[in-house]
Amino acid sequence: METINVSGQASCFYILFSIPLCRDQNLAILAWKEMRQGAHLEGKSAQFVNVIEDRSLKWNFLFLFFQDNYSVSANTIVYK
């Protein structure tokens, strides 16, 4: 049994309160996809444990622009 720490992040920048400057706005799916790709689980029996998800907003310049950040991290148990 092996334990691996993996994480994934995604972000999108918005102008004028709601106009996105990113192609895909579903940040949770993008972060989870990046985390799964980083774990290299193809053909292995594994599971994610201790999953931590975090979403934050960073406002800029008189609240006209903001950046939406989403991150997810987990321990991965790989069974031999």
Structural summary, described in words:
- This protein is α+β, with helices and mostly antiparallel strands and 80 residues long.
- It has one domain (2-79): Translation Initiation Factor IF3 (2-Layer Sandwich).
- 16% of the residues lie in helices and 59% in strands.
- It has one helix and four strands; from the N terminus they run E-E-H-E-E.
- A four-stranded antiparallel sheet has the order 2-1-4-3.
- A hairpin with a 3-residue loop joins strand 1 and strand 2 (19-20).
- The relative contact order is 0.38.
- The model has no long low-confidence stretch (mean pLDDT 89).
Distance between the termini: 6 Å
Enumerate the strands of the largest sheet in spatial order, edge to edge or round the barrel: 2-1-4-3
Please provide the count of β strands: 4
Query: Which architecture name does CATH use?
Result: 2-Layer Sandwich
User: What is Rg?
Assistant: 16 Å
What is the number of helices?
1
Query: What is the average of the pLDDT values?
Result: 89
